[in-house]
Amino acid sequence: MALEPDALIGVARTLAAGGNAGSPSVTTDTELRRAVSCAYYAIFHTLCRAYADVMAGPHLGSQLGRDAWNMAYRSIDHGLARSKCSDGGNMRRFGPNIQDFAGRFVELQQRRHEADYDPGTTFTQSQVNRIIDDAEGALMGFDNAPPDEIRLFITYLTSRPRRP
Q: What are the backbone dihedrals phi and psi of residue 120, each rounded to the nearest 5 degrees, phi first?
């Protein structure tokens, strides 16, 4: 079963509110960092699911269909996706919802790297709540983009055209 982006946003909100601390009024640095990471992964798994749906279609029934979907789901590369989302020239071909999603993807990936790998970075509860709001906004925009545009975006993110 794939990770659900809305559930990841819910976990991020719970962590940002101090949901795992001994006292609900205290939010630890670890909870804030994990909330940032969950927010990023909500949008990353949106890409994974969209790619699997485009490449393998629904996996209703056969084991081969499930295997194909799972293989496609695991094919999104974080670095390549960031690089493609950062390419302003190519991103102009997409509408505002996809452009916004791409921009937030890049920003949220950077924030996740800070949260996961930079011990000197600190986050406030209000910063983390804004990060979660940004992820949620990116998800809503992606969901509202035309299906053909999503398909083109997913293909763009995962393609590596040959050089002429």
A: -85, -10
